[in-house]
Design goal:
With 238 residues, this protein is of the alpha+beta class. The chain contains six helices and 15 strands. It has a five-stranded antiparallel sheet with strand order 1-2-3-7-6. The chain has a five-stranded antiparallel sheet with strand order 11-10-9-12-15. α1 packs parallel to α6. The radius of gyration is 17 Å and the shape is globular. It starts with a strand and ends with a helix. Cytidine-5'-diphosphate binds next to β9, α2, β12 and β15.
């Protein structure tokens, strides 16, 4: 699809979104920036953007094949994907299969405790407020979505978790937790944003080694080498 990149619409911490000359299609560029702790730690790692773009494209395609509606259209170069433009919903939808991260910092539960059934939480996406956790009543009171949309988001999040958990299990990787975002187009709710090593917590099933942004957050080693290894492991199914 020959398509022209247009004006910059929005620059986030690691991705930029551009308009295109096609109505309803945006271009998402995965940059080499990496940040953690609300932007308190920042670096630029050559090729990191293309590794996350490749993994996101692969996982969106896999989810689409499994019947999940997503914004993904196609990759046009190693760091740029065309997506359907969405009216984004300001929720960070987090699904947890194993206790880790903020869950063990906040609540009395040991890291590594399996969570069955998985735990779904939703945070209000607003860096200036440090993404406060919501509950159903707050989501409805703030009119972020209506009750039907909330039910659909939860159903999709659980389905996405089942599909991704099984996929990673087949690679001997435990999908500990991940964050996704949804948006609306033509009255339908679609999966948007990205699914990458920046937004998932992945542990090697054999060694327990981190294969995600925790390597960067907690200076556990060569984050680029880990991202490259895990991207190769994931995309070997292409
Ligand atoms: O990562 P942290 O401990 O700060 O937060 P968490 O609530 O434990 O994060 C759960 C999962 O969502 C992790 O895989 C994070 O990488 C991801 N997440 C994200 O991608 N973006 C956020 N703003 C918050 C969490």
């Amino acid at each position: 699809m020959a398509i022209q990149k247009g004006d910059l619409l929005y620059a986030g911490k690691a991705k930029s979104v551009f308009r295109t000359d096609r109505e309803g299609i945006f271009l998402v560029e995965f940059r080499d920036d990496i940040t953690a702790f609300d932007g308190g730690k920042k670096d630029v790692l050559a090729k990191k953007g293309s590794l996350n773009a490749r993994v996101s494209a692969f996982l969106f395609s896999h989810l689409k094949e499994c019947g999940i509606p997503t914004h993904f259209i196609e990759m046009i170069d190693e760091r740029s994907m065309l997506v359907r433009s969405l009216d984004m919903i300001p929720l960070e939808v987090i699904v947890r299969n194993v206790a880790a991260g903020s869950m063990v910092r906040t609540y009395p539960i040991a890291e590594g405790t399996p969570l069955n059934p998985p735990v779904l939480v939703m945070d209000y996406k607003d860096d200036s407020r440090h993404d406060p956790m919501l509950n159903d009543d707050l989501i409805l009171a703030l009119k972020i979505v209506n009750a039907d949309e909330l039910a659909r988001i939860k159903e999709l999040a659980h389905s996405i978790n089942r599909i991704l958990f099984q996929f990673f299990e087949s690679l001997d990787i435990t999908l500990v937790d991940f964050k996704i975002e949804f948006g609306k187009a033509d009255g339908q709710i679609l999966l948007g944003d990205e699914i990458s090593m920046d937004s998932m917590r992945l542990w090697d099933a054999g060694t327990g080694e981190s294969l995600d942004k925790d390597v960067y957050r907690f200076s556990k080693g060569d984050v680029l080498a880990v991202y490259r290894r895990v991207a190769e492991r994931i995309c070997a199914r292409e």
